[in-house]
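Lab notebook, bench 4. Continuing the backlog of folding jobs that were queued last week. Each job is logged with the same field layout so the records can be merged later without manual cleanup. Today's entry covers BspA family leucine-rich repeat surface protein, a 322-residue chain. Filled in by technician R.K.

JOB TYPE: sequence-to-structure
TARGET: BspA family leucine-rich repeat surface protein
LENGTH: 322
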Amino acid sequence: MKKNKKLLVVLSGLASTLIPVSILSARCSNDSNSGSENGGKNGGENSDMPHEKIRSENDERKTQEEEADRKQKEEKEKKDMQDVETVKQIVKEHEDAFGSFHTQGDFIEQISVYAKDKGINNLSLASHNEKNKNLRLDKEGGKQNTIRLQMGSQIFDVKLGKVLDNEVMTKYYFEGEQDKIFNNYLNDKKVVERNWRNILKDSRKIIVTQLGYYKSGPNIALTLIPYYTTKVPKHLPLKITSLLASFYNLESKKIDNLEFWDTKNIITFESAFEYAKNFDQDLSKWKLKDNANVKNIFKGAKQMNKHLENISKSWNKEKLTI
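JOB STATUS: finished
OUTPUT FIELD FOLLOWS
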């Protein structure tokens, strides 16, 4: 009987010990499951964004990109339209600056030089097939040569003025009278006066606004520059290949813009400044062909003596002489 009582006491003690442990274990298990459930729910919100939200953000991003593209396209189109007006003005200024020896390709190449000065670089013929088509003879002006151009998305037409037979007129004014533009085109004979007999003895200073030139054998030669010329255009026409005696007997000491000419297409400079006794200007920036003819280029131009060493070195020519 005593043994049974002792056994009951032991079992009772064990039971009182085990019950709290079981309860604690159950509580921990419940807490763990609860945390797992909550954690799974919260974790999904942080790492696995719902499809609707993703789709919404993608749509918003696409809309923003499309809006940016639209604005960019509008801005480019607006600039192209502005550039079209600028090009039309350039062509108007040079409408008489082309001859029958020019092709439409020559025209766009030359106009592009002037357009580049205005920050315009994407001008072209609307049809590449017209590139080798020669300009039509038009001594009256504005009737025979309409050229279609393209600027980005803009396609437009420009008209040329007088297109003479293998020659281009010179335009000029006397210093202080820029509103009175003259030229060397003889309307009665429909040809250009190349020797300037009418103004060679006029000692007034002359500003040339358009360089004249003409076909001379295999070359395209610059028309004689008047003796008292003090300024010429910044760009030498690309078609010109000869400066033969172009500044012969020049009286001026210096000609503004002359130093900027791109002479890469010039084949002969022979006698270009012959007897230009007062001429005193450094032309070392000119770039010459390796085989360019410079015979007698400065013959009799005594004031050029101080520049010859520098010019010879820059042009990669043997010592030039007066």
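OBSERVATION: The chain has two domains: 61-163, 166-322.
SIGNED: R.K.
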